[in-house]
Design goal:
59% of the residues lie in helices and 0% in strands. By secondary structure, the chain is mostly helical. Helix 3 crosses helix 5 and helix 10 runs antiparallel to helix 11.
């Protein structure tokens, strides 16, 4: 009987769940960002330039490296990211761009984010971390290239510059040069920056169109006198093209 009876098993205490970082609220995240802000970064971010306007008062001046560290602590958190973005705070938007789950972001949601940008630095951060990773980026690129909204147009030209550099098949590069020659001088600085980027990429990666790209850059003269630190390449297209072609060997 004893051998046939089921042995009594003392239940093991349930394993303690590993502690998880508490889901941060917008208020928590803003408080942590504010603590990381510096006067020097605030002053730097407030400056405007030939690339566009600077940040206003809705910023803490957090160094970008500290934003990355905070993002690593929070990890991907799509709802928090969207809520942070909607505060309009520049540092919160930098953080949001690192917390967004691109797979959960519809094309319409992405377009809304782009149209609510206020400064070029946030636009570039969103582009690097979200826009260029979005599965609908090609359809959006084509639509944005025809948009009258400056931030959508800026993003469209930035995506196009990326395509020129990495996957130009299917692009009419000569037609892009036509648009650049006709429009570059008259668009707002935010759009000029990425349209000029596209001009340079055509000159760098399309040898048959290089002479024309350089000529357009010389004719328009945009960023000819742009101050550059030692070791940096000028955004003046003829210099930029020549330098990058030289590096190609």
């Amino acid at each position: 009987m004893g051998d046939s009876m089921a042995k009594s098993v003392t239940p093991k205490p349930a394993a303690k769940a590993k502690p998880r970082a508490a889901s941060a609220s917008v208020a928590d995240a803003l408080k942590q960002l504010e603590a990381l802000g510096t006067a020097a970064v605030r002053a730097q971010m407030a400056k405007s330039g030939p690339w566009g306007r600077g940040a206003g008062d809705n910023q803490f001046g957090v160094p970008r490296g500290d934003v990355r560290k905070l993002a690593a602590k929070f990890k991907t958190n799509h709802p928090l990211a969207l809520a942070l973005w909607d505060t309009g705070n520049v540092d919160a938007q930098f953080l949001a761009a690192l917390l967004i789950d691109v797979k959960q972001l519809s094309a319409a949601d992405l377009e809304r984010l782009v149209t609510t940008i206020t400064i070029p630095w946030v636009a570039d951060w969103l582009h690097s971390n979200v826009v260029k990773a979005h599965p609908d980026k090609e359809a959006l690129r084509q639509a944005w290239m025809a948009s009258s909204d400056p931030w959508l147009a800026r993003a469209g030209w930035q995506l196009t510059a990326g395509r020129v550099a990495k996957s130009p098949d299917g692009l009419d590069l000569a037609a892009l040069l036509d648009r650049i020659e006709a429009e570059l001088a008259g668009v707002v600085p935010e759009v000029q920056w990425t349209m000029n980027m596209c001009l340079a990429e055509i000159g760098i990666h399309a040898p048959k169109l290089r002479k024309r790209a350089v000529a357009i850059g010389e004719k328009l003269g945009l960023y000819r006198d742009y101050p550059c630190s030692k070791g940096c390449t000028s955004p003046f297209a003829p210099i930029w093209i020549a330098e990058m072609v030289k590096r190609q060997g």
